């Protein structure tokens, strides 16, 4: 991994890792508070909304990587053409559910992602899974850490190790084109 890509990936991973640490407790607390505050109903209670699926619940494939890269390019074009858009790549203080919701709520961003054949949810989960795994594998290979963190899904690690050169080539091509 070249230094520029490693730096970008490292920054994104730190941001995503910070989000991942707060995602589950906040979602659980919200669900608990909503359940506790709900009045008793004579009919069967409605289950609280499930917390967002962690990135480990998404399987990484080259088709998803290709769609993610196309969506990322579309987002960059949309943001360049409209200065009023939030940066779609800035998920620093959001868990994947909030990030996907923000993308979904912004028509131009949602359309840019959908043009690539992805939902905003899949885009957010693929972003988190791919970037964090690339960073973890890169950090181990560079000797910065001794092992892949337990939070990184084993399928993602296997996928990235098997396709890393191809992914990095596509990412570099996407940055240039």
UniProtKB/TrEMBL annotation:
It comes from the Bacteria. Residues 1-20 form the signal peptide. Keywords: Signal. This is DUF4142 domain-containing protein.
């Amino acid at each position: 991994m070249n230094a520029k890509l490693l730096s970008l990936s490292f920054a994104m991973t730190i941001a995503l890792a910070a989000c991942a640490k707060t995602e589950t407790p906040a979602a659980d607390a919200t669900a608990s508070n909503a359940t506790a505050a709900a009045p008793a109903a004579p009919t069967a209670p409605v289950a609280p909304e499930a917390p967002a699926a962690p990135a480990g619940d998404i399987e990484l494939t080259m088709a998803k990587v290709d769609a993610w890269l196309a969506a990322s390019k579309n987002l960059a074009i949309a943001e360049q053409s409209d200065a009023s858009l939030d940066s779609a790549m800035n998920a620093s203080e959001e868990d994947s559910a909030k990030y996907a919701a923000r993308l979904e709520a912004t028509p131009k961003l949602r359309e840019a992602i959908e043009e690539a054949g992805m939902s905003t949810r899949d885009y957010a989960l693929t972003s988190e899974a791919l970037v964090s795994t690339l960073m973890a594998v890169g950090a181990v290979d560079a000797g910065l850490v001794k092992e892949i963190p337990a939070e990184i899904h084993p399928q993602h690690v296997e996928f990235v190790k098997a396709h890393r050169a191809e992914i990095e080539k596509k990412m570099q091509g996407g940055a240039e084109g």
